[in-house]
Amino acid sequence: xxxxxxxxxxxxxxxxxxxxxxxxxxxxxxxxxxxxxxxxxxxxxxxxxxxxxxxxxxxxxxxxxxxxxxxxxxxxxxxxxxxxxxxxxxxxxxxxxxxxxxxxxxxxxxxxxxxxxxxxxxxxxxxxxxxxxxxxxxxxxxxxxxxxxxxxxxxxxxxxxxxxxxxxxxxxxxxxxxxxxxxxxxxxxxxxxxxxxxxxxxxxxxxxxxxxxxxxxxxxxxxxxxxxxxxxxxxxxxxxxxxxxxxxxxxxxxxxxxxxxxxxxxxxxxxxxxxxxxxxxxxxxxxxxxxxxxxxxxxxxxxxxxxxxxxxxxxxxxxxxxxxxxxxxxxxxxxxxxxxxxxxxxxxxxxxxxxxxxxxxxxxxxxxxxxxxxxxxxxxxxxxxxx
Length: 387
Description:
The chain is α/β, with parallel strands linked by helices. The protein is built from 14 helices and 16 strands.
C-alpha cells in the first residue's frame, strides 16, 4: 500500500473548536497552510525586551546583580506596561497564544496582555532578600485577588530560593494551598544559588522546597540547570512541573538540564523562552530546536504544546478552546515532508500568518487587530520614542 496523506479543516464556533474535518488522499497535496495548537510559552519576562543584548556572555549571578537589577530598580508601572506590550506582541507574532510571565508590577503586564488579547498567566515577582521596588509580597498577594478575567489568571512568583527568605516562602506556600494558585519559581538556575542554599539550609534547593511543602501539582519550577538526577526524579514523584529554557541556560551557564527525567517520574515538563535578554527573542520554535540539538528532549516540539498550566490548551480537539496558529508555507519550506519532529528545523516564527486566541484573531499578517498596529508600526513607535 502507498503512503496516505491527510488534509484537515478546523471549524471554530465562538471560542471553541466545533468540528475537525479530515480527508485522506493517496496524492501528496500541495501544502499551503499548517495549523497547530497555540504555543504555550511557559516562562517569560516579556518586559525585559527593553534589555535585549545587554550583558550577553555573563554568568547568571553577575548578569543579575551588575546589569539587570540596577536597571530594574529605576522602573515604574508605566515602564513595565509599555515594554510588556512590545514583548507580548513579539511572542504572539512568533506563535505563542499563551504566556506564563514572572515580573514586577504584574498589573502592568496584565494590562498589556488585555490590549493584545493573549492568554496570560501572570505573577508578580516577590523578593525580600534583594531590594527591589514592586517586589513586595503584599503587592503580589493583592494582585491575585484583583485579577478576574477569562484569559488572564494569577500565579504566585517568588523569585528563587536564594532571594526569598524561608519564612516568606512558607507564607507563599500556605497562600497557594489555600487558594489553589500555582507557584512559578526559578530553581537551581545558577551555581551561586546552589551554594547559598547549601550553606544556609544544609541541603539542595529541591530538598529545601520539599521540606516546606512547596512541591506538588501547583509547583512550577524553572530552569533546574544544576539539579541532579535524584532531584529531578523528586520533582517528578511529587507531581511538580519543570519548565525547560535551554537557550537561556546555555547562554548564562554553559549547560542545561535533562527535563524528561521529571516527566518519566510522573511530573510535567514545559518549554519557555525566558527573558528576551540574554536569549534574544521569544521564539518557542527556536527553543524546541535548541532542545533537540543538545539532546535534552526527543520530539521537543511537543513541549511547546504542553499544558503545564492546566487550562485545557495545547491540542486541537472538538470542544477545546480555539487557540490556534496558522503558518503560511507558500514558499520553498512548504515543499517536502513536514512533521512535528522537523518543524523546529524547517519553520520559524517568521512563518506565522495568523494567531487565534479563544476564537478571536489577535494577529493577522503582521497586524494586531486589537492594537490597530502592525509590527512595523510598533518598530517605528519604539524606535522613535527611544529606550
